[in-house]
Amino acid sequence: MEIRKGIAVSPGIAIARPMLIDSKDYRIPRRSILPSQRSREIVRLRKAFATALTELEQIEAAQNIEESKIRDIFAVHMRFLRDRSFRRRISDMVNNELVTAEYAVSAILREIASHFAGIDDSYISERAADIYDIEKRLLTHLLGKRQEELDHLREEVVILARDLTPTQTAGFNKSFVIGFATEKGGRTSHTAIVARSLGIPAVVALGDLSSEVSADSVVIVDGNRGVVVIDPDEETLRQYNQYARQMTQFISKLNELRDLPAETRDGIDVQLLGNIEFPNEAEMVIAKGGQGIGLYRTEFLYLYGGQEPTEEDHYNAYAEAVRSVGKRPVVIRSMDLGADKLPHSGWRPNEANPVLGLRSIRYCLQDLPLFKTQLRAILRASVLGDVRVMFPLITNLQELRQAKMILRDVMEDLDEYAVPYNAHMPVGIMIETPSSALTAGLLANESDFFSIGTNDLIQYTLAVDRANEHVSTLFSAAEPAILRLIRNVVQDAFKAGIGLSICGEVASDPEFIMLLLGMGVRTLSLAPPMIPEVKKIIRSVTIEECNELSRKVATMDSPRQIKNYLRDAATRILPETF
Amino acid sequence: MTKPICETEVEVRNPEGLHMRPAMQFVDLANSFESDITVSNRHDTVDAKSIMQMTMLAATFGTRLKIRAVGTDAREAVDALRDLFDRFAPESLPKTGEKEGH
């Protein structure tokens, strides 16, 4: 039995066999062959291509690929594998330079990938990721390793990986993946966000796992305590099975709250909204008792296919989400990609500091066709319900004005073609940089609402890379600096009379709910599975208690002290969770 | 007897350039002919039957390309490929505006 402590990022208990995902790069040493071995290597090469093709044909034939863009990606891969001049380049290298088949594959594909990555066209530069994928597939066969295909899962597994990319997590067969454990990552890495939105337990930053696990191991992922147990002894397994049963009962009890209002004991209404990434999650928000979508992250539209989403791709996704929630609000955030969230390095490869680089709204303001395509779709969807648009990473008034000007341009375009849209669609911004938090008073004059994105706000304010396990413990919402900024934004929004919500991780952290209410927050947007629990907390407190707690916290000077104080208060309210 | 040679010029008129699906359609169509077919921009000439080479050509919006076929079905090949390019042009739907460089 091996017990590992990591960071708990999504609650719940999962007990299952592990599925190890090797996301490490294969490194192929240059090995020479004798001239007499040429034909043997060429045969190996041919076999690897044939097997890879058969594999792709099977994937293509499988019923579970509904996304046409994913099908397109595999179709491109198959064309590469059949491409004669591509195959000739590899076999020529084996013949002329007398190297192994795997070395030739790796060398040629990397050369092609880096060539693609260097082309100043996002479509082509992103093809580099496809080439790496093809490389991996061929090498898997050449090296004789059995690659377990995630889409061929037939039994429940917990995924063990170094770190998961958004594309990987999007590709999982969700009915069989019941937990995540990763070696790297932090509280707000993509694995964490996806796990929470799927409602499955996850623990990250566990250090080396792969050496501890074999194919017939049993793994327990304890997303409540941040623990992963590999090959538990009988007693531990028994305890965990019991614990898991209790959790299930607790959750079903919480679900009984669904139709009750999120109202404090002294009658103050709080609005609970859901954060979603995929349109079909909108249903889950409603099922869990959410009153709308407070944050619709649209990045998956860009990450799913190998190409830019079309206006119709956008529109169909938004329309589906809006239809699921009826008249309730849907806040669509414009593209927030760049830096850490990019799955392929090919896009903007030459940024020394991508987190401070061309990302999010900055990228949109420079790639107007991409930005306008999304805005057009949002505007077209605005007549279907209560749609609102939100711009991420705004740092100053100038950017907000530019973004709004482009929105007006798009409205004029639509006018020209008599396409209907809501001319009064509310326009809000994410407050997620220290500069926007400090100038919230100015920004409030020209925004209809604010949504505080605590993840980035913490990262930029505390200068902590949230995915770096060496410093991730410094990443804390309980830092006085963060709390002061939040307080400032809430007050400025209140003074200007505009809407305010919190959509970052703290909005779903049971320990923070009372503090946020005490600071004056009345709208929270959170991962759908967390809605019942947060509602339970809200229904158990009075605003007076929350105000008192907030005043106390304002006098404290260390995150540890604040965190302990908040935890004590929350434990008194909802002992089952802690 | 010399093989027939046929040539034409086309322009990439879909905003995303010769991206995934169009590139596949083009290569698939080229592969259905006997003739040797090449595509050139101002700098390079590549094999129209190779998805790798076609991708490397980086045929973005507005690129002018020369298609050249050598072989018994050269004329049919060039005609079919040019027709395909015509079909790539966006329909008369309202456009988002032209690529404004970034």
Q: How would you explain this protein's 3D organization?
A:
- The complex is a heterodimer of chains A (578) and B (102).
- Chain A has 578 residues and is an alpha/beta fold.
- Chain A folds into 3 domains: 2-23 and 151-251, Glucose Oxidase, domain 1 (3-Layer(bba) Sandwich), CATH 3.50.30; 35-142, Enzyme I, Chain A, domain 2; 259-577, Phosphoenolpyruvate-binding domains (TIM Barrel, Alpha-Beta Barrel).
- In chain A, 48% of the residues lie in helices and 13% in strands.
- Chain A is built from 22 helices and 16 strands.
- Chain A has helices at residues 38-61, 68-82, 84-97, 101-117, 122-142, 166-171, 190-198, 234-255, 281-287, 299-304, 311-325, 360-366, 368-381, 397-416, 434-438, 440-444, 454-462, 480-496, 513-518, 531-540, 543-554, 559-573; strands spanning 2-5, 7-10, 13-21, 157-161, 177-182, 202-204, 219-222, 227-230, 271-276, 293-297, 329-333, 386-391, 427-431, 449-452, 499-502, 523-526.
- Chain A has an 8-stranded mixed β-sheet with strand order 1-8-7-3-4-5-6-2.
- In chain A, helix 13 (368-381) packs across helix 14 (397-416).
- The relative contact order of chain A is 0.10.
- Chain B is of the alpha+beta class and 102 residues long.
- Chain B has one domain (5-88): 2-Layer Sandwich (Histidine-containing Protein, Chain: A).
- Chain B is built from 3 helices and 4 strands, in the order E-H-E-E-H-E-H.
- In chain B, strands 1-4-2-3 form a 4-stranded antiparallel β-sheet, with helices on one face.
- In chain B, a hairpin with a 4-residue loop joins strand 2 (36-40) and strand 3.
- Residues 92-102 of chain B have low confidence and may be disordered.
- At the A-B interface, helix 2, helix 3, helix 4, helix 5 and helix 13 of A face helix 1 and helix 2 of B.
